[in-house]
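I am still getting used to backbone structure tokens and would like to learn alongside you. Label the sequence line and the structure token line clearly, so we can match residues to local backbone shapes. Would you write everything just below, so we can both look at the same thing?
***
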Amino acid sequence: MSAHEPAGTRAVLAFGSNLGNRGETINDAMAEISLLHGVAMIGESSLYETVAVKLHGIDPDAPAYLNAAAIIETTLAPHALLAALNEIELRHGRVREERWGDRTLDIDVITYGSLELDDETLTLPHPRAWQRDFVLAPWLELDADATIPGRGRVDLLLASTDDTARRTRSESM
């Protein structure tokens, strides 16, 4: 936990990158998040390499992703947290041209405490996290007892997903 921020609501963030220096981008984004006013970094997962998932399904021809998860505590409201994360994505060259397209950086809010929310900008918990091993595997590394509100235990959900996430040894992939 950072020394400059109080405890708040625990949230889980998921990171993905398949363009540029993927590992450096994710690590830099985590460092930037830890410096946000109202945010304390609790834990950061290893990096996991996964095949790209597009609207039409798995795309083995697209650049592979690096993925990670982080657990934070925050005093920011959910939409304020999302706005701060979107700013970090933009600073790292995020362009939103194609839904589920290739990207330099994607940061999703997976859970925000036990809050359930669905509006035009944010759905909590993340609507597809429970189906994605590239979210569940890094999260489970950080919290063996993790659960997704309304969906169940992350370990059981991970056991029922595709097995594509592979932990990497290098942080500079």
About this structure: The first strand starts at residue 9 and ends at 17. Helices lie at 22-34, 78-91, 133-142, 154-159. The chain has one domain: 9-167. Residues 140 and 154 are 7 Å apart (CA to CA).
